[in-house]
Amino acid sequence: TKLKAGFDDGFLWGGAISCSQADGGWKQGGKGTSTQDLRYLDPSWDHEQVELKHHGNPFSREEFEAALADEGTEFYPNRRGIDFYHRYKDDIELFGEMSLKLFRTSICWSRIFPNGDDLEPNREGIEYYRSMFSECHRHGIKVFATILHYDIPVNLVLKYGGWKSRETIEFFVRYAETLFSELGDLVDFWLPFNEFNAGRFAPWDGVCLIPGDEECTSQAVFQCLHHQFVANARVVELCHRMLPGAPIGGMIARFCTYPATCKPEDNMQALQDDQYSNWFYTDIMARGEYPSYMNRYFDRFDIDIKMEDGDEELLAANTVDFLAFSYYFSQVSTTEQGWEKTAGNLVMANKNPYLPTSEWGWQMDPVGLRVTLNQMYDRYGLPLYIAENGLGTSDVLNEDGTVHDDYRIDYLRSHIECLKEAVIDGVDVRGYMVWGFIDVVSCGPLTMDKRYGLIYVDYDNGGKGTGERYRKDSFAWYKKCIESNGEDL
Ligand code: BG6
């Protein structure tokens, strides 16, 4: 029988973070200011105010300029992160102790090219990553590098309007070329863009637009996305040429979508929501062309994407080697008005009465992970990586340094069980990365108290604390999972 019993040897058990949420050291080592350094959080805000403020992203020119002029760190959690910049060696030693096989982080563009349009890279930035990735290999950990995770040098926004300009494509290609030549021997997997579809739901994070600046945000977002698709294809081409055999992939935040009822209209709605929120992005990256179903969408919202000669050929010729996705929740689609809502990653979701929600309102659905894996593999037949999955919740650090996070273990166990089912279903999935497997600043609310880690980091929302690291109960559990290759859950 060809039926698999479980995970292949060599399945990559991993953990993921991003530079802007972890590094800190925002003015050190020659780093320039990035768009994520401008995100604002008043530590005295309560939960509701954090939600209302829409993740502290600048929504108007005034907010943008005020953040730019402010040199402090108190109200800017990403300027502090978890001080990974100074502590990465000790942290990677802990990852090694966990038997981690794969470490995903992003490279900070403004550490390599502080202004984005510099002609020469900042050597100190390159040496930082050479040291970090060498340290991973020393502990037997492979490296999965995201080239851009929501943070571009702010100078590119000031001078060129960020991704609105085609010039940014050239700067991004120069940046990627530098990474391929300087770090190519130390990186095992390349990912040009984190969550390609984020630009549509969080324009500042995804495409670096100040929404208040735009007459029609949708038009601007889709034009920026087009420039990112072109940049992606250029970088895929470059990687294949400069580093033959090095896998380079595409990623989305996967919104697993079910019809709310078996009413045919709800089913049609689910199909369209899936196209517009998910498939559009992976279809371009994996199939190499704009899908025809988007014409109707563009027409309806009066979106007119300006392409240049050669763009379509470029997309067609440079498709990705693998697909990756973040998976946190599922949602339902319906044509009915007034359906109850709940929070989800990047979006407000329609509530599913069959699913429990996390403390932050995200609907927990391990089966949706199996559904997603099957759907994506059926459609593209490409190797898959789960680039992010995990539970964001508040944890209690006890006086004896323990954190009893059995709820996180339950979450991870149920998802890994469904992942294993997908493997037996025949899906070619090669890696699983726990998001924020060391606590980092959360992306949406920008707080420390929404924790995903298997390692606790002693900082609060205002950056106060010792910064010490503590193993949560989930640390030992994941180590056991990794060492038994997913058998001992
Ligand atoms: C993903 C992002 O969308 O979700 C991460 O790639 C983020 O950067 C993660 O941290 C979890 O979201 P949050 O808002 O709970 O941190």
SSE topology:
Elements: E1 12-16, H1 19-22, H2 47-52, H3 61-69, H4 77-80, H5 84-97, E2 102-106, H6 109-112, H7 123-138, E3 142-148, H8 154-160, H9 167-183, E4 189-193, H10 198-201, H11 203-207, H12 217-242, E5 249-253, E6 256-259, H13 264-287, H14 293-300, H15 311-317, E7 322-326, E8 330-333, E9 341-343, E10 348-350, H16 366-380, E11 384-389, H17 406-425, E12 429-435, E13 455-457, E14 469-471, H18 473-483
Parallel strand pairs: 1-2, 1-12, 2-3, 3-4, 5-7, 6-8, 7-11, 11-12
Antiparallel strand pairs: 9-10, 13-14
Helix pairs in contact: 5-7, 9-12, 12-15, 16-17
Bound molecules: 6-O-phosphono-beta-D-glucopyranose.
The CATH class assignment is Alpha Beta
Ligand set: 6-O-phosphono-beta-D-glucopyranose
Number of strands: 14
Figure out the total of helices: 18
Distance between the termini: 25 Å
Strand content: 5-15%
Q: What's the arrangement of strands in the largest beta sheet?
A: 4-3-2-1-12-11-7-5
How many domains make up the coordinates?
Answer: 1
Oligomer state of the chains in this structure:
single chain
If you average the pLDDT, what whole number results? 96
- CA radius of gyration is 21 Å
CATH topology name, in short, is TIM Barrel
Tell me what the CATH architecture is. Alpha-Beta Barrel
Structural class: alpha/beta
Helix content: 40-55%
